[in-house]
Amino acid sequence: MARSPLDPGVLRLAVPRGSLFKDSIDILEKVGFEVGELRVNDRKLTFQVGEGRTIITTRPSDVPTYVEYGASDVGIVGKDVLLEHRRNVYELLDLGFGRCRVIYATPADRDPETEELKHLGIMRVATKFPNITRAYFESLGKQVETIELRGSIELAPQVDLAEGIVDLTASGETLRANNLVERAEIADCTARLIANRVSHKLKAGMINELARRLREVTDR
Amino acid sequence: MPAEAAEIRYLEASIREVFDSFGYGEVITPTLELESVLETAGEERFRKSFRLFDERGDVLMLRPEMTIPIARLVATRMQDREPPFRLGYFANSFRPTKPQRGRQSEFQQAGLELIGSDSPAVDAEVLAVLCRSLEASGLKDFSIALGESSFFRALLDGIGVNSEGRDAIFSSLAARDMVELAAVVEALDLSGEDRQAIIDVIALRGGSEVLTAAKDLVRSPEMEAALKRLARTYYLVTRYGFAGRILFDLGILRNFEYYTGIVFEALSGDLGFPIGGGGRYDGLLGRFGRPLPAVGFAIGLDRLHIAVTGQGGVSIPANSGIALVGGLDPALELAGELRVAGVPVMALARETAAAEALSLAAAADLRWCVIPEGDSFRLWDLRIGGDTAAGENIASPGEGELLSREDLIGKLGG
């Protein structure tokens, strides 16, 4: 008989490549995953990391997708991605690392929000997070046009593509370098452990154990 | 595609047999319901639905599920009948969604409601019908995650969580956000022990040992009663022979405001989301003016189809039909006789060439192909030599067998 893709004997974990990658494999190593190969091989996508455990590495924003569909049982992902994509997954644990904030910023020399609103009514906001942006401005009762970009969001106000941006910031350095000022914090984000709805029950033992040990090594 | 539809209809028929065997009668309700009727049920979650206007300007809704229409039916058209009611349905419902595999805006459900009894014995029957239905569909690997919402509700009542706190807890549970839940619980004005109890109940998952572990968390007669109910239900499910299917999950997240007793989800390792689910909802019928306890479930047929396909596929009994060249004319009488004898006949035009007829028969998954030859008929058995549906054998179907009209009817209809 073919092994079921959610074989109760195997725990499949999705880990994001990118800024959370190093902290993720560090914390997994602390709870007993054999992550040596992940540190040295950045081309491979699937790894055997001990008896009955596999890891896949994906784009950060794809982690909740893999987990929602049950292609992975659990995953590590930033809260910003969860807020943006609203996938139907369990959010089990705040892992504490990867802290960053989703903020709203505009150029330092003027606050175009008030300027534009006086004249045009609708202002343009450039962002990688269209859903977070819409929800935030809707909650304020303000109408904005979201302009979705893939990167270098802080460029948009300088070339008059947008009056403001919604973006991630850790130190605020990029904002300052581009003459932008934070006007509001929208969300405070850290890495989270998430789980598939069905695995959460069918593999409750393994997932509870993983969450318990991660909680122990998380400095919170 | 016909093959897919045939499989889904076959699953439906298998489930219908099980429903019948437990005495559930099928009901058919309108696809369009008045919005005001559905809103009587007070269901926030139906805010996102397909709506349209009728000729008087009233707002109609494409039914987002079947339980509320059945509640209305029982409270109105079945008013002069005495409960209990055992009602089943096979129907399409509609909810706007971004289409995914197993999640479409229009979806087919097979479900039932048992209305008029609040005994754990009927909870057990409903769980048994669900397990039987899934087994009859050919699903081998599945589990039922079972919880008891009144246990958690009694805990919150017992330790005095106010309505604001409850709302915050339910909202983070609905979002499956355990991180937010921990923060919400932390902020509640409760003793550390009470806060821990909330977290502990939600974390209770596993086999029958959960019933024992839950005893340690009981802190009021109401919680004890809820747990006893659940244990009784489980004991009866054991006697139905389905103990091995049950996984307990006292934090099961299924619309806490709606369900008043057991809640459950059918899970299969081949699908990342539940195949179906249900529970006890003793408050709903009262909103329609006929307060009666009720319990029920719905199975998503599309999801079940995906899961069964992942576990070896739907085993539809082989089709014994024929493709008959000339079945439209001149052999339409012969086609009629065969149909009366119980043989499905796909009629082909008289000029259809043999090779084409054979390939059409194979494509329609029929077993036989018949071509008139003078006063006789040449009969090919497409199943000879193995796989016929794939069409590989069409190139060399052999010579077939020449039969008289009488022998043909005798062979196929006999």
Which descriptors would you attach to this protein?
heterodimer, A: D-Maltodextrin-Binding Protein, domain 2, D-Maltodextrin-Binding Protein, domain 2, 2 domains, five-stranded mixed beta sheet, 11 strands, 29% strand, B: 414 residues, alpha+beta, BirA Bifunctional Protein, domain 2, Rossmann fold, nine-stranded mixed beta sheet
Give a structural overview.
The complex is a heterodimer of chains A (220) and B (414). Chain A folds into 2 domains: 11-99 and 190-217, Periplasmic binding protein-like II (D-Maltodextrin-Binding Protein, domain 2, 3-Layer(aba) Sandwich), CATH 3.40.190.10; 100-187, D-Maltodextrin-Binding Protein, domain 2. Chain A has helices at residues 21-30, 36-40, 63-69, 79-85, 112-119, 130-139, 173-177, 199-202, 204-217, and strands at residues 11-16, 46-48, 53-58, 74-78, 90-94, 100-107, 123-127, 144-148, 164-169, 180-189, 191-195. Helices cover 32% and strands 29% of the residues of chain A. Chain A is elongated, with a radius of gyration of 20 Å. With 220 residues, chain A is of the alpha/beta class. In chain A, strands 2-3-1-4-11-5 form a 6-stranded mixed beta sheet, sandwiched between helices. A 5-stranded mixed beta sheet of chain A has the order 8-7-9-6-10. The relative contact order of chain B is 0.12. In chain B, strands 1-5-6-12-11-10-7-9-8 form a 9-stranded mixed beta sheet, sandwiched between helices. Chain B has a 5-stranded mixed beta sheet with strand order 14-13-15-16-17, sandwiched between helices. Chain B has a 3-stranded antiparallel beta sheet with strand order 2-4-3. Residues 386-395 of chain B have low confidence and may be disordered. In chain B, a hairpin with a 5-residue loop joins β3 (51-53) and β4. Chain B is of the alpha+beta class and 414 residues long. Chain B is built from 15 helices and 17 strands. Chain B folds into 2 domains: 2-310, 2-Layer Sandwich (BirA Bifunctional Protein, domain 2); 322-413, Rossmann fold (3-Layer(aba) Sandwich), CATH 3.40.50. The longest helix of chain B is centred in the first third of the chain and has 20 residues, at 2-21. Chain B is elongated and about 95 Å long.
